[in-house]
Amino acid sequence: MSELADTMTQAAPIAIEAPLVDPDWLLADPHTRFAELRRDHAVIRISDQSYWALRANDVLSLLKDDQTVQLEGRDYVGFHQIPDGAMARFLRDMALFSNGKNHRAKRGPFARTFSHHAILGMQDRIRSVARSIVADLPRGESFDFVERMCGRVPSEMIAAILGLPVSGAAYFAPRIYAIADGIASIYPIDKHDRIETGASEVFAYVEEEMSSRLTAPKDDLLSRLVADWNETRTIEFSNLVHQVIAFMLGGSDTTRAAFAIAVSLLRQRPDDWAALRADPSMIPGAIAESLRFEPSVGHLPRFTVAEMQIGEARVPAGVPLQLSTMSAMRDPDLYDRPDEFLIRRTDHPRLHLIFGLGPHRCIGDLLARLEMEESLRALLEAAPDLEIDVAPQMIGFGGIRKITEMRVHIPSSM
């Protein structure tokens, strides 16, 4: 071959339409089918206007590509044809579904509270809550672990951090879980009445708590947020309420499912469970691996502002482009032996993909990891003989995934 031929730029491949995939077929076995699709396709569609990027290198670059933005709340509501009401207002205001200056204004009040230093300062409180919940678990009988522990951990910790009464967690948690059903790749219109009721009741609850702190502040996070807002008023008060609800949502349903799956994966591997008991310093790595292996969030949403070519696929401007974390975190280009659960894995990226990248990276990533780590530590210390009666499954391939029942028992002490 001539030197000239060696130096010629290769022509870009001809862009083709991404293949259309039946979502029910994908839902039946998402990990296996993402792997099959990923080998031949950088992008798929699950509807005429819903594109999915599958490969890790594309997902990582697209999170920082200025040809994609976060889907705006009004567009999310319009695309999913969500009826006007409390849920639609929440989605239009939610910082997750905003960009640029608007996003910074909504996220800004939380930045100081969720700094690395501030979250580490909460670790003793998180540990105390986790130990209290484990001590309260039944002994000698079968119970629903998702309900009795996994649901309590994030909701009671969020209540403690915000300054809400711990008793309030039992009220707001099921309503937050109802709202979580509305953050999905396909909005479940058949569940809208329940979602709408949850959104309306949570808003009323949080608004009342925050309004009371305008006139009678306390020594808590809600009071600091309200005081900071009162000095600048860069957003409407209702908008601030929605950002608090978004924090409650982000720290509740995802952590609830993620922790249940982590315990299930580890307890079904006796060698791993024993290793963690012997060396608790391995707990952070075990949690990171469970978040990769069976993520509670299936994709990160983006929106194209220009026509793009991703791999061989043409993606038009003005369409939702879902970045599949489920697929990317099983991609051999990102992880060695990606289909194996390895708690000693050393190839995790510095920033875990499950929490996103760039300006929309989850502000509570460290808090979520500490909640799960301290909860696992508390179980290993006080209930190391926990046994699984019915293992849970994670359902879905996008949005906030759902978890099935997980039944366990802890033998009575002699």
Question: Brief overview, please?
Answer:
With 414 residues, this protein is of the alpha+beta class. It has a single domain, classed as Cytochrome P450 (Cytochrome p450, Orthogonal Bundle).
Distance between the termini: 80 Å
Assembly state of the chains shown: single chain
The number of domains is 1
CATH architectural grouping: Orthogonal Bundle
Instruction: Give average pLDDT, whole number.
Output: 88
Under CATH, the topology can be stated as Cytochrome p450
The structural class is alpha+beta
Helicity level: 40-55%
Strand order of the largest sheet: 2-3-9-6-4
Overall number of strands? 13
Instruction: Provide the CATH superfamily.
Output: Cytochrome P450
Tell me about this structure.
The structure is a single chain. The protein has 414 residues and is of the alpha+beta class. It has a single domain, classed as Cytochrome p450. It is 52% helix and 11% strand. The chain contains 20 helices and 13 strands. Strands 2-3-9-6-4 form a five-stranded mixed sheet. A three-stranded mixed sheet has the order 1-8-7, with no helix packed on it. It has a three-stranded antiparallel sheet with strand order 5-13-10. Helix 5 crosses helix 6, helix 9 crosses helix 11 and helix 9 crosses helix 20. The longest helix is centred in the middle third of the chain and has 24 residues. The protein is globular and about 65 Å long. It starts with a helix and ends in a 5-residue tail after the last strand. 44% of the residues are buried.
